[in-house]
Structure formats: C-alpha cells, structure tokens
Specification:
The chain has helices spanning 3-24, 27-43, 59-66, 78-87, 89-93, 132-141, 158-166, 170-173, 198-203, 227-232, 234-247; strands at residues 49-53, 70-75, 97-101, 115-120, 142-153, 182-186, 189-193, 209-217, 259-266. It is of the alpha/beta class and 267 residues long. It has one domain (3-155, 196-266): Rossmann fold, CATH 3.40.50.150.
C-alpha cells in the first residue's frame, strides 16, 4: 500500500467513532450530501448494484439501500468499516449492504463484479493523484455502460480565495493550486491532499470512461469548514444554496466550487 494511503488509513481510523456526530452537526455539509444523494437518484435506477469507494460510516450506503439498491461498500479505514457495520446492521442482515476494508489500490480484489454503478463521495479521491490502477479496476468491475459518480474537491474554489484574501493570508488563498498537493491534518495525522480541476480529473479516466455530466457543488454557498457564516447569516446562505441548485449544471458555473460532481460512463 502506498505511503500516502497508509497515512490516510491511520487518520480516518482515529476519527471514525465521532465522524457521524461531526457530519450531522454541520448544516452546510448536510446540504451538500442531500444534493449528492439527489444526483445519485437522478442517474442510478432503483434495483442497481453499486460499488462504493471511501464509504466512511455508511451514510450514503444506507441511503441507497433505502432506495432499493444493493451496495458493496469499501473504505481504507478499518475503523470506518466497523462503524459502518454497526450503523447498517439491519441492511447487512437483509443482504442490501456488504462492507469490506479496501484501499483504492485494492478494488481489483473485490470478488463481485458487473456493478451498475460506482460512487465516491466527498473528496476521498483527493487523497491520491495516481489513478491508473483505480481507473482500470473500476472498468473491470462495472458493466458496459455502467456509471462512475465521483464527488471531488475542486481546485477552483472562489469562496476559499475570497475568504483568505480578506484575512490577508495569500498563501492559503491559493493552496489548492499546488500541483504537488498539501498536507491537511485529519485526526492529528498529516494527510496528503490533492485538488483537481474537472478537465484534469477526467483525463485520468479517459481511457476507460467518457464524461456524461458535471455539476458544481457549493459555488456560491460557503464550504463546510466556514459553517460559522451559515449560523451568522442563515437567510443569505439559504438564498445562496437555492442559487447553487439552479446553476450547478450549467457552464461556466459547473467548473468551479468547493467540490464538483462528475458522472462518467464506462466505454
């Protein structure tokens, strides 16, 4: 396993127990998750079999199972998978969810195949910058014409630039533009994090996948780590959220934001 993934595993093992509590306490993150789940339902038919990457504590897996889908959930963190199994006990017992500890480099070892779709939410894929193995593995696990829906932290985040400019912290304002990545602290562990533009990210998968759709996520709405802004100005933020939903799939808005959602189809 690559060193950067080992650090990622250690970091998310440390925060696994409290992850849901922190997630649920953030209204901006909750809004973003609802948007992503709406996109899942818009593009993935009920009854589909789904391979989930960086599944975390199983929030999306449980949601998808509730909508008539079967999910094979994977995550690099043993701790996350253990919490997932606790949270999804009922769904696992009914055969709607299976869960295994797998890094991105180990997806090829998943015994099941012919999935209708694969999903990866909230920047898990920003922990690596070499996608050759993952791209090949996903193409092998998906049916012909199967979808890959990835939610990726965007290199072009106007809110972050504006926020740090106001604080006169120009280094942080442009941190996402560092092609060699930055170190973000997760659970007291330094995790290498990379940011991608939509064109750059799709180039990593173009051998096996074609682009179907791109959505912006949190272009006008503040990023989740600025949730204090939401508490101070809830009406303004709610207006920005509505604006985001109206323009998220249109050019040029879909190219920028805190994250982007990209839908690719296996060739």
């Amino acid at each position: 396993m690559r060193k950067e993934l080992i650090n990622t595993k250690e970091a998310f093992n440390k925060i696994a127990v409290n992850y849901n509590r922190c997630d649920n306490a953030n209204p901006l993150l909750g809004w973003m998750r609802n948007i992503v789940q709406e996109i899942y339902l818009r593009h993935i038919p009920s009854g589909s079999r789904i391979l989930e990457l960086n599944a975390g504590t199983g929030v999306d897996a449980i949601f998808l199972a509730s909508k008539g889908m079967k999910v094979f959930a994977t995550d690099i963190s043993d701790g996350m998978i253990e919490v997932l199994k606790d949270n999804a006990y009922s769904e696992i017992k009914r055969g709607l969810i299976k869960a295994e500890t797998k890094s991105f480099d180990e997806i090829s070892s998943v015994k099941e195949e012919n999935f209708d779709a694969a999903v990866s939410n909230f920047g898990g894929l920003n922990c690596i910058n070499d996608f050759k193995e993952l791209s090949r593995s996903l193409s092998e696990k998906l049916k012909h014409g199967g979808l890959f829906i990835a939610v990726v932290m965007n290199r072009y985040c106007p809110w972050e630039i504006f926020y740090y400019f106001l604080k006169m912290n120009f280094r942080e304002a442009f941190r996402r533009f560092k092609r060699k990545g930055i170190y973000a602290e997760v659970g007291g562990v330094k995790v290498k994090t990379y940011y991608f533009g939509t064109r750059q990210f799709t180039s990593y998968f173009q051998k096996f996948f074609s682009i179907e759709k791109i959505y912006s996520l949190a272009l006008f709405t503040p990023p989740p780590y600025l949730n204090k802004i939401y508490y101070k100005f809830p009406r303004i933020c709610n207006f920005l959220m509505k604006t985001d939903k109206k323009v998220m799939e249109f050019f040029p808005f879909k190219l920028a934001g805190d994250h982007f959602v990209i839908i690719m189809r296996r060739r």
